[in-house]
Design a protein that fits this description.
With about 180 residues, the protein is of the alpha+beta class. It has a single domain (about 5-155), classed as Aminopeptidase (3-Layer(aba) Sandwich), CATH 3.40.630.30. It has helices at about 35-45, 55-65, 115-130, 145-150, 165-175; strands spanning about 5-10, 25-30, 75-80, 80-90, 95-105, 135-140, 155. Strands 2-3-4-5-6-1-7 form a seven-stranded mixed beta sheet, with helices on both faces. Strand 4 and strand 5 (about 95-105) form a beta hairpin. The radius of gyration is 16 Å and the shape is globular. About 30% of the residues are buried.
Length: about 180
């Protein structure tokens, strides 16, 4: 089953850097002496079943070999010094299109609003980098993540795949969005 797609369109407003609550700080991949290890430790929680270990090759394939990857746009949130969540913004500058890649949070930090902060950082970055549009892919079962994407201004793509409209209808019902 194809992953769902969500799109973002730059509204032209001035980018505003998000305010972080006390104890939460933003890091970039080069800021961390063990960045790849930290990233791998977080993304092992992306699937429905936690993986005990993710090999370094996943980091290489997912980020280092990704067209237009910039290590300065691979962000981490730390809570009281502990790395808790990550998001990567890929900017295809010639097309002025961004891609939000590999959003994940350790389970012990979920429910703290870190997903909203990550998306705010991503939208700020997309605007600052001059992107006109951006997209991300997600799965039907990632309802909490989808809620944060919607709040950040991403909209469901209901047309590029024959089953997307029905799947988004089911998600809308699960999130009780039809009356909002």
């Amino acid at each position: 089953m194809a992953q769902l797609i969500m799109n973002w369109y730059n509204d032209g407003t001035v980018p505003v850097f998000p305010v972080f609550p006390e104890g939460v700080s933003l890091k970039r991949l080069p800021d961390l002496t063990d960045g790849p290890t930290q990233w791998l430790d977080i993304i092992r929680f992306m699937e429905q079943k936690e993986k005990t270990e993710v090999p370094y090759e996943v980091f290489e394939k997912s980020l280092l070999k990704h067209l237009d990857f910039d290590e300065n746009l691979c962000f981490f949130l730390a809570v009281k010094g502990e790395i808790a969540a990550t998001i990567t913004v890929i900017c295809h500058r010639e097309q002025r299109q961004g891609y939000i890649h590999m959003v994940a949070c350790k389970p012990s930090f979920r429910g703290m609003g870190l997903g909203h902060l990550l998306n705010d950082v991503a939208v700020y970055t997309l605007k600052k980098e001059g992107m006109k549009t951006a997209y991300l892919t997600t799965d039907d079962w990632r309802l909490a993540a989808i809620k944060t994407y919607l709040k950040a201004g991403f909209v469901p793509d209901k047309e590029s795949n024959p089953d997307f409209a029905e799947r988004w209808k089911n998600i809308d019902a699960a999130l009780n969005l039809k009356n909002q």
